[in-house]
Sequence to fold (496 residues):
Amino acid sequence: MIAMDFFRLIIQSLAGLGNALCFLGDILRNVLRGKVRYGEVLRQVYEQGAQSVVIIALTSFATGAVLAIQGAETLSRFGAKQYIAQLVAWSLVREMSPVFTAIIFSAKAGARITAELGTMNVNDQMLATRALGVDPIEYLIVPRMLACFLVMPILTIVSEIVGIAGGYLVGIFEANIPGPYYINQTLRAVRYVDFFSGFAKVFFFAVLVGWICCYQGFVTQGGSLGVGKYTTKAVAYSIIIVILSNTVLTKLIITFWG
Amino acid sequence: MIRVEHLFKSFDGQKVLNDISFSVPEGEILVILGASGTGKSVLLKCMMGLMKPDKGQIWIDDKEITRLPEGDLLKVRKHIGYLFQEGALYDFMTVYENIAFPLQEHTALDQRAIEAKVKNALELVDLQGVEGKHPSELSGGMKKRVGLARSIILGSKILFCDEPTSGLDPIRSRDISSLIKNVSKRLLCTTVITSHDIRNSFYVADRCALIRDGKIIAMGTRSQMEASSNAFVKEFIH
Ligand SMILES: Nc1ncnc2c1ncn2[C@@H]1O[C@H](COP(=O)(O)OP(=O)(O)OP(=O)(O)O)[C@@H](O)[C@H]1O
Ligand SMILES: [Mg+2]
Fold:
């Protein structure tokens, strides 16, 4: 009995994954054929970006500050307080900013995407799109997906800059490090490899989060209850997958790239 | 010309359409009658290719649509006006943008021409001064009329209306019915309407069909329906 249920669960998951892959394939086909509505993309970029930028800046600032406080505490035990700048910059650029941005983006913009598409689904607006002879993937999904791909990297850079600023303030006021020295240390610490090893991940996360959130919205059914269910599912999946895939990506990047 | 042949559709074992066949000659208005939950909307969605039937064929002009891939279906649907039961307007667009949407998608008209057409369509459905409102600010009946305006704006030769008069007051129902009849007769539209509003149905319809338990149990003109000896038909139309 339990074995049967388990078996069914596996089959269902595989079918779900297959459908989700077909969905991604449809999106890619549209993009490759140049069926992209740039006006819509721009509108989505604005909406998603404007929605998440403040909260991402806030959390990044706090994260940078916390890293500096902890850094000052631990590093001063080894008499290495002057390395706070490096610690903050490396942590943010290599790990924290990409991952935090992806997580907060999922919870804000991602949830919005799923809820919006899901509501359109349960109110027949998705069907209406098809009835009007317009492909909903082209009209509704591709712009949202591309917007994710464009907005998340920008948000990550915002997060890195604001986070470093948070660390800087703690550094000069709490740890009494001279400001110009701190900035100089930061700039010297972050090499291209550091920056791009973090930055490359963001594009992965953007595709994953956009894909998950758009897909969950696209398959939402079951009225307003369904919208709630699929939206939470989209956010939960996004966050779990970002964190798990980050582990793999970090290992890969460090192995092959330093 | 629309032809439906031996259509079957069920959901999780619940048989909704059970061998439906009929045809609508060009320019005719057919009203499909039936109690709530008998599958009228499902039938119309199948005819639009929005739902796949389990079995059977649907011919729109000379195309069999049940096996067409979505890409080809989109092209077929450009030539069909479809009114959803709940209107199905885009929440994120104003009334004006909703009605203008099909024109922007499928015609090369300029802004001025689109404006004139939308204004005209809104006048037809007796709605003025709501262009700038969002659907959430409209009543159910108003949404339906906006939906109707959107579905006739391209002047398609085929028109499907899912319960155009439900949720409207009796006078508006009559107005909307005569509007559909006028539009349909003027453009020689092949029109399929679902309804459970007998009075208006007899008014617009060239022929009616009554569905029960997934089957068409009676079909014909008003006088043929009224002359039917079937007990359920009598009960339904009186
Ligand atoms: N997507 C769906 N999934 C499962 N069952 C469905 C679905 N759509 C419709 N049904 C079922 O099919 C039956 C017919 O539904 P339909 O909406 O076609 O009724 P209707 O004749 O249009 O009713 P009404 O006059 O109230 O609009 C209902 O019993 C409904 O439960
Ligand atoms: Mg219905």
User: Anything to note?
Assistant: The longest strand of chain B covers residues 14-24. Chain B touches chain A through 25 residues (CB under 8 Å).
